[in-house]
C-alpha cells in the first residue's frame, strides 16, 4: 500500500492535475484514502459532510503534501486526519441545516424532525413516507400542475399528436405510461401492444412528444413565474 | 475491460445535496415521483463533487434536473459540462444489478455515470460509466458488470474537450443515430458493408468513435431521389480524427443516381478530393483526417443541383 500511494503521489507531481493521467491517479488516491482503516471516523450524523469537504481540500492541496517518516502512507493519513478532525469539530459548533431540524409531525402525531427521519438507517425505505408528509404541507405545486395537465390534456394537444396510422398511440398515453407510471413502461412493451416497431415509437416519442411536452412545460413555467 | 469494481469511488453526500433533494422532492405530485427526484438530485450532486475534485467544471443549475417543470415531467439527472455537453448521473438502489436509461435521456448526452446509493443515504459509490455511443437506440438495460471504469469517463471527457465542435455539429437534431434512419439498400442486400451493425452497441470496445446520419433531399428538384448521408468519426491518434462520409441509396431507389458526385472542399472552397457514383453503385464514400479547429465542407452534386454540408472540427 505504501508503494502504491507513493507511486500515485509521484504521478500527481509528474502530470498536470488537469491531464487524464493526473485525474486517474487522483481518483485512485481518493479510493485508497476512503478505504483506509486509519482514516478518522465519527458517529456524527453529518460526518459525510465533513469528509466531503476534506476530500475537496485533499484534491486542492495534494501537491503541497510532504511525506514524513516512518512512511508515506501513515503521514498521508495523518495529514488528512488533521484537517478532517477540524471539519468534524465544525459540525458540533455550527448548525448547517436549520431546515432539517424543523419539527414535523408523523402519522401518530408525534413530533419529530426531518433529520430524525433522514438519520434512520433505512432512509431509502422511509423516503417516500417522509416526502408524502412534506408534500401534504404545501400548496398546489409545479409537480401537481404538470401531472394534472398530462392526465387531463385540456387542450387535446397531446391526444392530437400520434404516429401516422396509429391515432390511439398518442402522446398523452405515452407520457402517462413513460413518465407518470412508476415504474415506467418500456418502449418495447408499448410498441408490441400497438403493433409498431420500437424505432418508430421511439422516434415519435423523441421527435414529436418530447418537444411538445417541452412547450407545455414552458407555459406552465411562465404561469409559475419561472421564465427560462 | 471490467475494472469497475476495483475502481469504485465512494463520494460522501454533502448536506447541500440533501437540502436540494428535499426542496425538489417536495414539489412533486406523488411520493414515488418525489423519491425519484430526491435520488436523482443526490446522484447529480455527487458526480458534480467528484468532477470538481478533478478540476472539471460543471454548471449544475443549467441542467434539466435543476429546472422545476422539467424535473417534474422527466426522469432526468443531467449534469452540464459547459461547452462540452451533458452527463447523465443515474442513481441505482443498493441491490440493483443493472442500469436503466430512460428514453427521455437517451439523447444529447456524453454518457452515463452509474451512481449507487447506500441505504442510509450518507454516501454514494460511482460504479462506472457508459458513453453515449455505446447505448442501443432505444436504450436497453445494461448489466452492471458491463460498465467501464471511471477511467473511461475521464478519457471520454478529454475526447470531447478535443473534438467538441464536431460533436456539437453532429448531435444537432437533423442528424440522427442511424438506427432511426431508413436502412440503406447496400446494407439490406449484403453483409459485406459493416456500416450499420458494427458501429452500435460497442459496449465492449473502448474505441472512441461515433456515427450519425441524415436524409438528404433535393429541395430544388423533389423528383431527384433522396439519399442517405452517414458520417463516422473515429480518433486515429491523439491529435487527429478520421471522418468517413458515405452516401447510400435507400428504399425504392436501388442504386445511387449515376453521376452523383461528392467532394470535400477545404476552408477556401477548393475541392481537395472527390468521387462519383457509377452505374449500379449503392454507396460511395470519402474519408478525411482532421485536426482540431480545422474546417471543411462536403459538396454533393447531381447535374446542376448542389448541396453543401459544413463541418467544423
From TrEMBL, chain A:
Ranges of residues in domain Resolvase HTH: 172-202
Top-level lineage group: Bacteria
GO molecular function: DNA binding; DNA strand exchange activity
A Pfam family annotated for this UniProt entry: HTH_7
Protein name listed in UniProt: Homeo-like domain protein
Organism: Lyngbya aestuarii BL J
TrEMBL record, chain B:
Superkingdom assignment: Bacteria
Protein's name according to its UniProt entry: DUF1822 family protein
InterPro entries, per the entry: DUF1822 (IPR014951)
Organism listed in the record: Lyngbya aestuarii BL J
Amino acid at each position: 500500500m505504501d508503494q502504491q500511494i507513493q507511486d500515485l503521489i509521484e504521478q500527481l507531481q509528474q502530470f498536470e492535475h488537469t491531464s487524464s493521467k493526473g485525474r486517474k491517479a487522483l481518483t485512485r488516491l481518493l479510493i485508497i484514502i476512503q478505504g483506509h482503516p486509519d482514516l478518522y471516523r465519527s458517529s456524527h450524523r453529518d460526518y459525510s459532510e465533513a469528509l466531503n469537504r476534506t476530500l475537496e481540500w485533499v484534491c486542492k492541496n495534494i501537491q503541497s503534501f510532504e511525506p514524513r517518516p516512518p512512511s508515506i502512507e501513515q503521514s498521508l493519513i495523518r495529514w488528512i486526519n488533521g484537517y478532517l478532525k477540524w471539519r468534524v469539530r465544525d459540525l458540533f459548533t455550527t448548525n448547517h441545516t436549520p431546515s432539517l431540524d424543523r419539527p414535523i409531525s408523523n402519522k401518530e402525531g408525534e413530533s419529530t424532525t426531518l433529520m430524525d427521519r433522514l438519520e434512520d438507517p433505512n432512509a431509502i425505505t422511509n423516503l417516500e413516507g417522509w416526502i408524502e408528509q412534506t408534500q401534504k404541507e404545501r400548496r398546489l405545486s409545479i409537480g401537481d400542475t404538470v401531472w394534472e395537465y398530462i392526465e387531463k390534456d385540456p387542450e387535446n394537444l397531446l391526444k392530437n399528436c400520434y404516429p401516422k396510422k396509429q391515432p390511439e398511440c398518442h402522446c398523452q398515453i405515452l407520457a402517462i405510461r413513460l413518465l407518470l407510471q412508476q415504474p415506467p413502461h418500456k418502449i418495447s412493451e408499448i410498441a408490441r401492444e400497438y403493433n409498431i416497431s420500437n424505432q418508430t415509437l421511439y422516434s415519435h416519442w423523441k421527435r414529436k412528444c418530447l418537444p411538445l411536452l417541452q412547450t407545455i412545460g414552458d407555459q406552465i413555467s411562465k404561469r409559475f413565474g419561472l421564465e427560462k | 475491460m471490467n475494472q469497475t469494481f476495483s475502481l469504485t469511488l465512494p463520494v460522501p453526500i454533502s448536506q447541500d445535496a440533501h437540502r436540494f433533494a428535499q426542496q425538489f422532492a417536495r414539489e412533486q405530485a406523488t411520493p414515488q415521483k418525489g423519491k425519484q427526484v430526491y435520488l436523482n438530485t443526490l446522484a447529480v450532486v455527487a458526480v458534480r463533487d467528484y468532477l470538481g475534485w478533478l478540476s472539471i467544471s460543471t454548471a449544475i443549475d443549467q441542467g434539466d434536473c435543476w429546472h422545476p417543470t422539467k424535473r417534474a415531467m422527466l426522469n432526468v439527472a443531467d449534469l452540464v459540462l459547459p461547452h462540452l455537453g451533458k452527463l447523465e448521473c443515474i442513481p441505482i438502489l443498493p441491490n440493483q444489478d443493472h442500469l436503466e436509461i430512460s428514453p427521455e435521456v437517451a439523447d444529447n448526452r456524453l454518457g452515463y455515470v452509474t451512481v449507487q446509493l447506500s441505504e442510509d443515504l450518507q454516501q454514494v459509490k460511482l460504479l462506472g460509466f457508459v458513453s453515449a455511443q455505446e447505448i442501443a437506440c432505444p436504450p436497453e438495460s445494461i448489466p452492471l458488470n458491463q460498465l467501464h471504469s471511471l477511467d473511461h469517463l475521464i478519457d471520454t471527457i478529454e475526447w470531447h474537450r478535443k473534438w467538441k465542435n464536431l460533436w456539437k455539429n453532429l448531435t444537432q437534431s437533423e442528424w440522427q443515430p442511424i438506427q432511426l434512419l431508413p436502412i440503406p439498400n447496400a446494407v439490406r442486400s449484403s453483409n459485406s458493408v459493416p456500416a450499420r451493425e458494427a458501429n452500435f452497441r460497442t459496449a465492449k470496445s473502448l474505441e472512441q468513435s461515433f456515427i450519425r446520419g441524415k436524409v438528404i433531399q433535393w429541395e430544388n428538384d423533389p423528383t431527384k431521389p433522396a439519399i442517405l448521408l452517414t458520417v463516422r468519426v473515429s480518433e486515429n491518434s491523439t491529435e487527429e480524427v478520421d471522418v468517413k462520409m458515405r452516401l447510400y441509396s435507400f428504399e425504392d431507389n436501388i442504386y445511387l443516381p449515376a453521376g452523383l458526385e461528392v467532394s470535400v472542399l477545404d476552408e477556401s472552397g477548393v475541392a481537395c478530393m472527390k468521387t462519383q457514383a457509377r452505374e449500379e453503385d449503392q454507396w460511395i464514400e470519402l474519408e478525411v483526417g482532421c485536426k482540431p479547429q480545422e474546417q471543411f465542407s462536403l459538396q454533393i452534386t447531381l447535374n446542376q443541383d448542389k448541396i453543401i454540408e459544413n463541418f467544423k472540427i
